[in-house]
Amino acid sequence: MGAQQSFDVAVVGAGPGGYVAAIRAAQLGLRVAVVEADRPGGVCLNWGCIPTKALLSGAELVDSLRAHGKAFGIDADAVTLDYGRAVEHSRQVADRLGQGVSSLLRKNRIRLVRGRARLAGANTLDVSGPDEQTVEADHVVLATGSSEWVPPGVAVDGERVVTSREALALSSVPGRLLVVGAGAVGVEFAYLYAMYGARVTVLEMADQMLPGMDVEVARTLESEFRRKGIDVVLGARFEELESSGGQVRVGYIRHGRREEISIDRVLVAMGRRPLTEGLGLEAAGVRLDDSGFAVVDAAHRTSLPSVLAIGDLAGGPLLAHKASEEGIAAVELLAGVERPPFDAARVPACIYAQPQVAAIGLTETQARERRGDGVRIGRFPFSASGKAVAADHPAGFVKLVVDAEFGEILGAHVVGAGATELIAELALGMQLEATTAELARTVHAHPTLSEAIWEAALAAEGRSLNS
Ligand code: FAD
Fold it and tell me: Which residue from 17, 231, 260, 272 puts its CA 20 to 30 A from 5's CA?
């Protein structure tokens, strides 16, 4: 083992949880090290949020030309597509932003230790790899993230059978693609490949796409996907797959009957699992739950008080901004900053296919389960929005789930163009405990998509203007 170094905080993992926690800790005057086994930026920058959004920007461009070009006198029939070039672009973007993280760490005088960390004790990390050494710290923040979950018996070969990780490096588009799982990752890849010319089928076990999200939102996404030629099979439980002769045969159970599909490539998007292998957590006394996520308290401490866990490792929602916000909260609480605890109920979730989907807080179903009749709904369709109609994007709506007595926003659900940007206003509204009366009094510029939020608030107040 190499030299021994001592710090106030040692962070394991330089994803959006770890590197943000490290910067905030350094801003608070703490001496900080970050141990990273791979490339700074984590899954988010390298194999998740950023490269997928780079690719989806291309998909959206093609979709816009094809689906909406005619309305503006643009003939998109002669457009040629080079998916390989789009993948190159996405890799360049990931590289550039990853280098940005390294320089941010330097700028904040954070020691980057390259290698794989193992928790050797309550305050000790053994690092193996290029910068082999022992790191001692008063506190350790674990931010090792998650990786793809693949069902037992499924062999990922990186060509015919892939997860999002392999898919992001492949520059070819299959003729026919089956996406197993209609969660955020499955939906985004289904849309991406369909726009670049694949015939795509999505298989989902639940009876709606985006399980857990608002049912009306999911139904709108489903019908828009079908209009774009994407086949959606719901209530279909994946059983097994077999790859031979350049084809993959996938068996699934639907309505109690076994069905099969033969396809060129399968993308398994059935969820993620926490990354704890080789970390030595259980030996060190860090308790994990039944699914392997670290169990933490409101201050993000694990069962070993000097060890904290944030981000995907500490459980859902498995989102980059949740990881970052937890990282900030964890080190601020460590440093004695007076602040409210991190509130997972106010984390927006976004899906970047077209139509886009964005949601925060309770769904209507959850709100009615908890409050019965004490819930009001305010809804506004984009088909009645001047800006959406002008842009030829009339699909979708804004739906507000509201406390019937005080008008507080309990949840917000948006499906349609621009949804992932619109949700920020509703996140701020919920943070400030804004009521629909206050939203309705807020002047929204005309014509903008954000007027749909204003109109949904007016609807919740029982005084719709434009619908
Ligand atoms: P990670 O980003 O997973 O980072 C963990 C880091 O720890 C990695 O760099 C890893 O190398 C390192 N590490 C692990 N073990 C060790 C060890 N023992 N020693 C040293 N280093 C170690 N979220 C969104 O919010 N928006 C999106 O649009 C979005 N799109 C996604 C698309 C895809 C295809 C995928 C897969 C995910 C997407 N996510 C998205 C989820 C998001 O990427 C994760 O929620 C986020 O990266 C979690 O951050 P983290 O810091 O907890 O962990």
Answer: 17
17 lines ligand 1 (CB under 6 A): yes
Alpha-carbon separation of residue 41 from 15, 35, 94, 185 (angstroms): 4, 12, 9, 19
- For residue 37 and ligand 1, the question of a CB distance below 6 A is answered with yes
DSSP state of 382: G
Mean pLDDT by 10 residues, the chain (467 residues): 80 98 98 97 98 98 94 91 98 96 97 98 97 97 98 95 97 97 98 98 98 97 97 97 94 96 97 96 95 97 97 97 98 96 95 98 96 96 98 97 97 97 98 97 98 98 94
Q: Whose CA is nearest to atom 3 of ligand 1?
A: 145
Set 68, 321, 413, 446: catalytic member: 446
Sign of CA dihedral 410, 375, 234, 240: positive
- Look-up: residue for tokens 């399968």? 266
pLDDT of residue 136: 97
Q: Give Cα 411 to chain centroid, integer Å.
A: 18
Q: Is residue 444 flagged as an active site residue?
A: no
18 CA from centroid of ligand 1 (Å): 10
CA of 314, closest atom in ligand 1:
52
pLDDT of 455 reads 98
Work out the angle between the directed axes of helices 49-63 and 184-195 (0-180°, nearest 10): 40
Burial (CB count within 10 angstroms: exposed 0-12, middle 13-18, buried 19+), residue 178 = buried
The verdict on pTM exceeding 0.90 is yes
Distance CA 460, CA 467 (A): 12
Nearest CA to ligand 1 atom 53: 145
Run of H or E including 113:
strand 111-114
Structural tokens at position 71: 């309305």
**Rounded to a whole number, what is the largest CA-CA distance in the chain?**
70
pLDDT of 5 reads 75
Per-residue pLDDT, 2:
58
With H, G, I as helix, E, B as strand and everything else as coil, classify residue 301: strand
**What is the model's pLDDT at position 260?**
96
Contact 228/63 with Cβ under 8 angstroms? yes
Mutate to test the pocket of ligand 1, among 52, 105, 111, 144 (most ligand atoms within 8 A of CB): 144
Q: How far is CA 249 from the centre of its chain?
A: 29
The CA 88 to ligand 1 mean position distance, Å, reads 21
